[in-house]
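step=encode ok
step=design start
structure_in=
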């Protein structure tokens, strides 16, 4: 199967590695050409000169870009994807995009006889490397059947969520819940730390009780208490995802005051901490406001 992969970022690159092996023949393209050059040298994949070049002669094109806007930008122009996509091709967009944009892209592609799936993923860099990602699909079931061999190369759990846009919506809501858990755990633990409670003891109780979450079980102990804060998923991208979830709730006229507030808080955290901060570093802003460091021996007034 001839496949093209566009977007060799932190998640996209390890995903593409799984497609650079038989039974696939892979072409890759990246906005920063050096990444595609090094990837091709290491894996034997073909480096395409343009998105159009990548799409020519392939059955499935996979995009994995920061936002839906970048996906739309690579469609147009003499070197864009639309110039290379033949009728019958399938575009699988693994970008954590927004539902409205995915529906718009699908409509444009349908005019040319090209099928579209929104297929955002969850599982992080580790899941991408292991080929164990969860893939959330929006689109036609027949198109999903065609895409399944490609998706199974990097995904363990492939879930058909509904029509085009449904995968994006589920991913955004999932990540909004992640943001809620990170922020609320940070607030609670900061208050406990100011009262002199050892965060490790507090977490031991929470994680054996009903308040536990991935944030309390893994992210806070491994990154905040240790002060390690590895950069695995940018705060800027989580801010984008929470914003998508908040917009989606408004579009559905579903009351979502907590999601709206979380979107505002993460927008503020991004402004305060910068574009390169990791998503868990949002807790640093909670600590700054509280005048305490979670995991330190004593509260520190500011």
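sequence_out=
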């Amino acid at each position: 199967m001839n496949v093209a992969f566009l977007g060799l970022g932190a998640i996209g690159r390890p995903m593409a590695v799984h497609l650079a092996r038989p039974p696939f023949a892979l072409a890759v393209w990246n906005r920063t050409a050096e990444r595609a050059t090094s990837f091709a040298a290491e894996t034997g994949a073909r480096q395409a000169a343009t998105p159009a070049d990548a799409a020519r002669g392939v059955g499935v094109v996979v995009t994995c870009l920061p936002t839906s806007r970048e996906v739309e930008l690579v469609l147009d122009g003499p070197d864009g994807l639309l110039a290379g996509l033949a009728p019958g091709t399938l575009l699988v967009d693994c970008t954590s995009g927004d539902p409205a944009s995915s529906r718009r892209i699908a409509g444009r592609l349908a005019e040319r006889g090209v099928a579209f799936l929104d297929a955002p993923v969850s599982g992080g860099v580790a899941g991408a490397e292991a080929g164990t990602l969860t893939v959330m699909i929006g689109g036609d079931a027949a198109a999903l059947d065609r895409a399944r061999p490609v998706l199974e190369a990097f995904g363990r759990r492939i879930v058909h969520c509904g029509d085009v846009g449904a995968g994006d919506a589920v991913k955004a809501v999932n990540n909004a819940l992640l943001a809620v858990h990170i922020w609320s755990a940070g607030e609670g633990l900061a208050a406990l730390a100011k009262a002199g409670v050892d965060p490790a003891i507090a977490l031991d109780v929470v994680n054996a009780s009903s308040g536990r979450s991935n944030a309390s079980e893994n992210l806070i102990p491994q990154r905040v208490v240790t002060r390690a804060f590895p950069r695995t998923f940018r705060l800027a991208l989580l801010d984008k995802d929470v914003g998508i979830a908040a917009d989606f709730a408004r579009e559905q006229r579903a009351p979502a005051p907590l999601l709206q507030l979380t979107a505002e808080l993460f927008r503020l955290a991004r402004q305060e901490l910068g574009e390169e901060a990791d998503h868990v570093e949002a807790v640093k802003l909670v600590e700054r406001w509280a005048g305490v460091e979670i995991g330190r021996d004593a509260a520190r007034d500011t």
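step=design ok
step=annotate ok -> The two ends are 60 Å apart (CA to CA).
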